Amino acid sequence: METIENRVPRETRKTTPQSGPPPGVLAVVFTALFLGGLVLSTLLAGGDPFPSPFGGTDAITAYFRDHEDAVRVSGALQFASSVPLALYAATVSARLHRLGVRAPGATIALAGGVLAAAFLTCSGLVTWVLSHGEVTQRPELVRALQYLAFGLGGPGHVVLLGLLVAGIAVPGLLAGLLPRPLAVAGLAVAAVAELSTLVLLTEGAALLLPIARFAGLAWLIAAGFLLPRHRVRTPARVPEEG
């Protein structure tokens, strides 16, 4: 049976592009889950912060042995936070393409965001493994797994998060899609994130990680809310007859 839609010429049918979930909201959810893991794990551990992998073996082993619930919550929320991050990367990449960005920026944002989410997922799972008593009975295994969790969720995640930020900031600046100060700030955040690779060579560079991470979280929220849905095109000026 022929419908009204079938009788309408295909060329005249109007389609509304799907915009996906609001990226600003996704960034807020990602940030809330990630920070929630830090705060809740600290509260469950009686105020003891998550140990640095560069500390002493005895203190680190004691923390994981005495605070299994805190470690489990930290790993679970870290794992959960990777989901909205991956959705953010996919949504922003699609929006940049819809806004007419044909440069590699949109693809770089997608690749960086998805890989950053994947590294965070792996870090959360390794942290979850560290919450089991069978593991904490072997100090050498605890150290190895903590180094792995740190490498995945520290420099691995942050460097790739910088690619996500750069992939949005560059077209945001060149195409005028974001306020210029915000776009320039994004480039600075991305640069610090890439420099955090130095953590793999020297412990002193570990200070770059929280700077790039938390500045990146704030920037992704701002960019998610300010990135336009549609590109405004200025109509061509028609010369006056005289």
Tell me what the structure shows.
The protein is an all-alpha fold. It is built from 9 helices and no strands. It has one domain. Helices cover 69% and strands 0% of the residues. Helix 4 packs antiparallel against helix 5. The chain is elongated and about 55 Å long. The N and C termini lie far apart (58 Å). The N terminus and C terminus are likely disordered.
Tell me, briefly, the overall form.
elongated
> How many strands appear in the DSSP assignment?
0
The poorly predicted ranges are 1-16, 234-242
Content-based structural category: mainly alpha
Count of helical stretches: 9
Task: Provide mean pLDDT, rounded.
Answer: 89
Rg, Å, rounded: 22 Å
Distance between the termini: 58 Å
Q: What are its keywords?
A:
single chain, 242 residues, mainly alpha, 9 helices, 69% helix, elongated, disordered N terminus, disordered C terminus
Topology:
Elements: H1 4-7, H2 23-44, H3 57-66, H4 68-98, H5 105-129, H6 133-136, H7 139-174, H8 180-195, H9 208-226
Helix pairs in contact: 2-4, 2-9, 3-7, 4-5, 5-7, 7-8, 7-9, 8-9
